[in-house]
User: Fold Dihydroxyacetone kinase-like protein from Halarchaeum rubridurum.
Amino acid sequence: MSESDTEALLDAIERIDERLHDEQDYLTELDSRIGDADHGNNLARGISAVSEKRDDLAEMALDEAVKTVGTTLVSEVGGAAGPLYGGSIMSASQELDGGLDAESALAFAEAYREKLTERGGARPGDKTMVDAVTPAVHTFQRAIEEDDLPPVDALAKAVDAARRGVAYTVPLRASKGRASYLGLRAVGHRDPGATSTLFVLEELLATAEAHAGEASATDASADDAVAHGDSADVDGANPGDEHGETDDAGDA
Assistant:
């Protein structure tokens, strides 16, 4: 795994860990309305276990490291979230065996969506995390393949699509999971799995933006050095509303 891939992965894990712990009570509150009231606690426990493996992950190839994240979540996260999150990550990790770039990121996203849908049996409109993942992946694909956007810009559009997908779950009647037993009582509440998916995507975007900014700063420093005739230094340049609580259904 390249040094930049390593730094990005570890940074993403740290950001996601902090975010899921910050949102732990909120996610549990959401889950108390239509589920087992354990989604936030389960995810917080799982991401803590991942963070504890930080030193080991830093020494692995990217695909192996991401697969280890998945296996850890499967073993540590209770309920349906462990197999859905972790199992899908494990399956998609093989798409990263050549490193991280726009093509492999898209392949990972598509494989993750396919495995998530297959494993959970859910489709868009069932009031699950699929309602956030599907529009995000489709938007990311269009932004990369059709609009030819830089990966960070494509990811920003994907996060916006996921945000609309979360809002889309509010008026839905659940068709999968414990929420499906509530019938109309599940209407009016956002899905906790879709919400936690959005939080993870937001932190992945923050990571991508931070590392893209570091790369831009390095390039700018190198260009400035060349402009001032300091070419000897160029090769050594170093990189220097809270939950969107609206019940309006978006276009997922």
